Amino acid sequence: MRKSLLKDIVNTFISLPKGLWVTAKNWSFLRPSVTQLYPEEKPTLPERYRGMPTLPVDPQLGRTPCIACGACARMCPEHIITVVPEKGTDPKDRRPAEFTIDISRCMWCGLCMEVCPKKCLKPARTFELACYDRQGMIYRLEDLMRLGGTLEPEAEESESSGDE
Ligand code: SF4
Ligand code: SF4
C-alpha cells in the first residue's frame, strides 16, 4: 500500500514537467499559430470558394442578364428561389421583376448556377451572412446584384455563346 502511494507521488512529479514540456514546445516561436483573431483578422478565402448564389451586374446592361426563365427555381432542391418575370416586355428582353432566394435553407449545392442558361448566377465570395432575423436571410433582386458585384468578362463570353 505504501509502495503504491510512493509510486503515485513520484509519477506526479514526473508527469508535471512532462506536461509543461509539451506546452513549451507548442508555445515556441518555431511553431506559428494556426488560429485567427476573427473578426479582426479575416480569413483568406480559397480562389475557388463557392458562397451563396448572387446575380452580378453586367456593366453593359447595368443590371443582371437574367432572363427570368425560372430554370434555377425549378432545379433548386430546396425550392427557395422565386422568379417573377416582368410583364409586358419584349420576349427578347425578358428580365425579372422579382427574384428572391431564402438563403436560410440554401445548401450551397450550386445546382441553380449550373443550370442557368445565361450563366448569370455566380457564387459570392462572402461567408458573413449571420443575422438575428429570418427575414434578413431572404435576399431580393437588388441584394443579389449588390452582393454579386460585376459580371466578369469570361462569364459574359460564355453567356453570349449559349444565348442563341
Ligand atoms: S445553391 Fe442549391 S440549395 Fe442553394 S439556391 Fe442554389 S440550388 Fe438551391
Ligand atoms: S436560370 Fe438564370 S436566367 Fe433563368 S431565372 Fe435563373 S438566374 Fe435567371
Strand order of the largest sheet: 2-3-5
Determine the N-to-C terminus distance. Answer: 90 Å
How does the overall form come out from the CA principal axes?
elongated
Fraction of residues in β-strands: 5-15%
Uncertain parts: 155-164
Share in helix: 25-40%
Task: Report the average pLDDT across residues.
Answer: 88
Radius of gyration: 27 Å
- Taken in chain order, the helices and strands follow as HEHEEHEEHH
CATH class of the domain at 53-161: Alpha Beta
Characterization of this structure:
The chain has helices at 2-27, 71-75, 111-115, 141-148, 153-161; strands at residues 53-54, 81-85, 96-102, 122-123, 138-139. By secondary structure, the chain is of the alpha+beta class. The strands form 2 sheets. The protein has a 3-stranded antiparallel beta sheet with strand order 2-3-5. Bound molecules: iron/sulfur cluster (2 copies). One iron/sulfur cluster binds at residues 66-72, 83, 115-118, 120-121. One iron/sulfur cluster (SF4) is lined by residues 53, 75-78, 80-81, 101, 106-112.
